[in-house]
Specification:
With 393 residues, the protein is of the alpha+beta class. The chain is 45% helix and 13% strand. The protein has 15 helices and 7 strands. The chain has helices spanning 12-19, 30-38, 64-77, 82-100, 103-115, 129-134, 137-147, 164-171, 227-238, 244-251, 283-300, 304-321, 325-338, 345-353, 357-367; strands at 43-48, 53-58, 201-205, 211-218, 256-265, 270-278, 373-379. Strands 3-7-4-6-5 form a 5-stranded mixed sheet, with helices on both faces. Strands 1-2 form a two-stranded antiparallel ribbon. Strand 1 and strand 2 form a beta hairpin. Helix 9 (227-238) packs across helix 15, helix 11 (283-300) packs across helix 15 (357-367) and helix 12 (304-321) runs antiparallel to helix 14 (345-353). The longest helix has 19 residues, at 82-100. The two termini are 32 Å apart.
Amino acid sequence: GSRYESDDIAGASHFIEHLMFKGTKRRPTSVDISRELDRFGAEYNAYTSKDTTTYYVKIDAAELPRAIDLLNDMLAHSKFDQEELDRERNVIIEEINMYDDNPASKMEDLLEGVTFAGSTLGRPIAGPREVIRSIPREALMAYHATHYVPSRMSIAIAGNISKEAEAKIQSTFGKWKNPKKEVARSFEAFVPRAPKKGEWIAFHAKKTEQTQLGLSFHGASSKAAELPAIKLLAHILGGSMSSRLFVEVREKRGLCYFVGSGHISFEDTGAFTITSGLDPKRVEEAVQVIWRELQKITKEGVTASELRHAKDHIRGKMMLYFEDTSNQASWYLRQWQTFEKPRAPEAALADLEAVTQAQIKAAAKRLFQPNNLYASLVGPFKAAPIALFAGIR
């Protein structure tokens, strides 16, 4: 993923993701790849995040060996054709433009930038335009050779798995060799630092009908003991239409259409976020309402009924989630990447079930401190709207 990149190749992970679909020796063009999968009605794509790049195919079980062979061919034998590479630079720049023109996406990028300032986690995944325009083919190939190796790879299959699947994996991915000398992990663990005056807020001036607001707090890593409590806290605050923020910000005051909260974890850190789209004239009111709710849950905690409902809601959502074999595969991939031994969903549910009211209150108290607040806004501003947070930060 993008956090592994140095500044001079920022965006390489995402660039390579695109190039894996552009042709191999056996399947020379992107059409050869897509036509083979389209023939069987397959769902296929890829995505790059801060810490991983994932490729997937969902296909008729009878065609599973074909999907394994094709993925192996793409990831091991893509040509990195110079002409295709140069053409794809423009495609990626247009993708960057698309997200930059989307106020909600822009707000999220800005929020990550201030939350993880000084870290590669704070950079946009697609990289800056100037790097995409100039990064050499050789640099992309070197990055691919370093990271696309067995020791850094996980493979998951879920659904109706044929007897031939394991043999096919061994005859394809199983033939990959680790390099004689592997490159060490190329990023440093994130350590929060106290921002200088005004560096905790980012804004983008744009003439919009709605202001996009993002708030974040340094959270917990993927292995943190308090993570189950934080997940329940996020749900109680803004995880459903009966959550505290939804009721207070939307239902009682009509300040927004959407408001929600969540938490994202990495191996060394995490972020608790609250996002909403608001009337530009009422942003300050919304900020104050949100902050009061955060302080309320810090001081008073949650009720037994709220906690029970949150646990039941998450359990129900997980049951629906695992009805999809794609989600099952994604779950176990993440488990392999995070823990020494993958956990079954039942283990995660047991962790959530064990969370107490006191643990949620303790998590809220740690997270929702004024000096741990970061913010981003996209809307019709002329300067950084620090005044919106008067009395808070």
